[in-house]
């Protein structure tokens, strides 16, 4: 949508301060690095920074542009309709996207399937006649919430907005594999290779976007050519993207040109060294756990600003809750910084275990300051923890403490 | 989304013929009439006609612009992700929309609630703190499918695209009514009044958009300020719209400025004379049934063109099925014009009884001509009929015969 978007009523007071913060930001846009530099100020900003050409169609007023390849949704811009509009969905590219021309004729896009009994190359047109699945799911960057780590890890300082809930549509990978005679014996990983161009003179493994996930992730995975009812745009990995529901964003390989079942994980640096769970101060490597499955997490989206000022009376506190690999089954809200909790209610449709749910809680607030927090539990009994799991690069932050919103209620 | 949209592979051959049809069309844009003139050629066109200013943000390549106030989605542009993207959603205004400025400060919009024990005027900001519901539902114009009536009823010649499945978000009307002491005794209708400007010198009842629905429709109805995660745009009734799920589009009053519980139906012409189920040749009036609840209906969206030419082999036939007031529970597909039927499968999430579901059926087609049809049954046991219910103005066409797609399969 290109209509004028209005500043939400609750964000007006915060705008002046945020503008000042923006002016003081020394953003370093390292478009072709898998490890963007840490920014000097992790605070979200509501001012408008230009969108890159491939994402010009997005609603700049709902986004925070960190760099040409890292753009997040403002906390209050995610809406209350479960599905995140595409023009507000975050973008995170590890390297610059391929030329926009690859989406001019999407049906001609080709993908090799390897590591099956009958390896085969399909065009996207052929995939469209092999099966159809529509998969609602949370797409979330591994580093979402990184800004809250006190040791200031390198990388984009995402707050809550490197996440959205969308519906990807494509062909089930299990269907393709069955048609190709099944996975070859001994293969334990599913490895997707992105179609980004590798600059001349560089070691391909240093920049190639190639990710391996455990073979079991194939079960619900699809090759998607559509998102939220539209042909998959370049900004989100079109014409074809590997979608592995429940797994962090990087595992959902964009512009996917090869899907291979492999005995070992990809030798690419993005697999071997990046996206590893290592202790603070320790560089990641193959000996560390890979960042794959997402844990349960929730956050409040309305009121949305740390500096929100509200009038006393009933206030609807809203947010989103995801369960990771299992449905979110319970959501609690605290208005006293986590000292006490009350159960909130889920709002709107349940789109399945990989989607998030909206929640709402009505509180009758007297004048004063409040720390609003939310905490979800999934169907497997996992509860969102108070503390983040410390790690060097600031991955998978699902601490409810870190995601609190402070509000000021006036008479 | 503003990216270049590509002509779907299956529509390429149809484009040339459609362009010729477009050139020959004598479209009469009667922007301020509740009864647009019949067009001389009901055929859908895939060429681009300029969008009106208030809908400039829409994707022109996915739409058929009948007039400034009547714009439908192309059959093949609805996608396979259940939710219809806003930039592809149809538009039907009975009169021209109010000035765009009314969405500049949506929270200031006011609505009177009348016919309750404690009548009250709310601002939209106040409504937002009274409750929250997200409601997936089919929004469909009463005249969708009118183009297939052989007697050529007056009005826009909609084919299948005056319908979409979206998620509206707002406050339950039942919650408001409870807060205002309940409905006054003796009230049997819920009447919404639109905020359109009435041109000077006209009898307000001749143009006012004011619709009454039975009181029981209040149960699941909401006042919505958001659709698909975005603030409700002017083109779809923003800042505030009355949403009555399961009822045809006109009952979902845009720019709603008053909601009244009443003893009688609105005296407006749009209630008394329009949207009435009268015999062919007979003008509608209060003695005829009002167009309220929608019947079950389905149609094929892919392949999408009557002139589609496909290669022999497996073809995924896809479409949408809605149940009206109850969930669609079964979907059948025929490739021989309805002589024989096979059960298809629903694809993707079930968003609740008012939403539609996507379906898919894989057919292995040899060279030849095929008439593809779909037929749905809802949870109440109502099956989509072969024949339309004839009526003067061409409302509620849910005939499966009328919605067939003819395809040509080559070797």
From TrEMBL, chains A, B:
What positions does the domain Oxidoreductase molybdopterin-binding occupy? 105-268
Range of residues in the leader sequence: 1-31
Which residues lie within the region annotated Disordered?
286-307, 376-398
| InterPro entries associated with the record | Ig_E-set, MoCF_OxRdtse_dimer, Mopterin_OxRdtase_euk, OxRdtase_Mopterin-bd_dom, OxRdtase_Mopterin-bd_sf, TAT_signal
List the keywords (alphabetical). Metal-binding, Molybdenum, Oxidoreductase, Signal
Q: Which residues form the Moybdenum cofactor oxidoreductase dimerisation domain?
A: 289-407
Cofactor names from the entry are: Mo-molybdopterin
Family annotation (CDD domains): SO_family_Moco_dimer
Residue ranges, compositional bias (Polar residues): 376-385
Superkingdom, natural source: Bacteria
What's the protein name?
Sulfite oxidase
Q: Give the organism, scientific name.
A: Neopusillimonas maritima
């Amino acid at each position: 949508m290109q209509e004028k978007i209005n500043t939400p009523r609750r964000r007006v007071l915060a705008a002046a301060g945020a503008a000042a913060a923006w002016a003081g930001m020394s953003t370093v846009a390292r478009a072709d690095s898998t490890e963007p530099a840490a920014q000097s100020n992790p605070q979200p900003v509501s001012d408008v920074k230009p969108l890159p050409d491939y994402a010009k169609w997005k609603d700049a007023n709902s986004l925070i542009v960190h760099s040409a390849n890292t753009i997040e949704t403002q906390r209050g811009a995610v809406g209350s309709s479960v599905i995140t509009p595409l023009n507000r969905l975050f973008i995170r590219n590890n390297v610059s996207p391929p030329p926009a021309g690859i989406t001019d004729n999407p049906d001609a896009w080709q993908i090799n399937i390897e590591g099956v009994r009958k390896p085969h190359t399909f065009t996207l047109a052929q995939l469209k006649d092999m099966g159809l699945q529509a998969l609602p799911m949370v797409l979330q960057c591994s580093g979402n919430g990184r800004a809250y780590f006190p040791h200031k890890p390198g990388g984009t300082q995402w707050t809550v907005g490197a996440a959205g809930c969308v519906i990807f549509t494509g062909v089930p990978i299990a269907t393709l594999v069955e048609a190709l005679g099944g996975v070859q014996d001994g293969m334990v990983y599913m490895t997707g290779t992105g179609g980004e161009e590798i600059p001349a003179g560089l070691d391909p493994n240093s920049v190639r976007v190639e990710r391996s996930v455990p073979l079991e992730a194939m079960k619900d995975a699809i090759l998607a050519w559509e998102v939220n009812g539209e042909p998959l745009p370049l900004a989100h990995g079109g014409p074809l993207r590997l979608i592995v529901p429940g797994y962090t964003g990087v595992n959902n390989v964009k512009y996917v040109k090869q899907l291979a079942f492999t005995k070992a994980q990809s030798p690419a640096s993005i697999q071997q060294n990046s996206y590893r769970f290592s202790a603070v101060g320790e560089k990641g490597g193959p000996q560390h756990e890979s960042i794959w499955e997402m844990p349960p997490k929730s956050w409040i989206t309305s009121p949305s600003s740390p500096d929100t000022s509200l009038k006393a009376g009933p206030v609807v506190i809203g947010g989103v809750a995801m369960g990771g690999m299992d449905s979110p089954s319970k959501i609690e809200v605290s208005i006293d910084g986590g000292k006490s909790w009350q159960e909130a209610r889920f709002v709107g449709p349940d789109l399945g275990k990989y989607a998030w749910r909206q929640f709402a809680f009505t509180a009758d607030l007297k004048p004063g300051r409040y720390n609003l927090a939310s905490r979800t539990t999934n169907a497997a009994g996992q509860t969102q923890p108070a503390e983040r799991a410390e790690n060097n690069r600031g991955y998978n932050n699902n601490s409810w403490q870190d995601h609190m919103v402070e509000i000021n209620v006036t008479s």
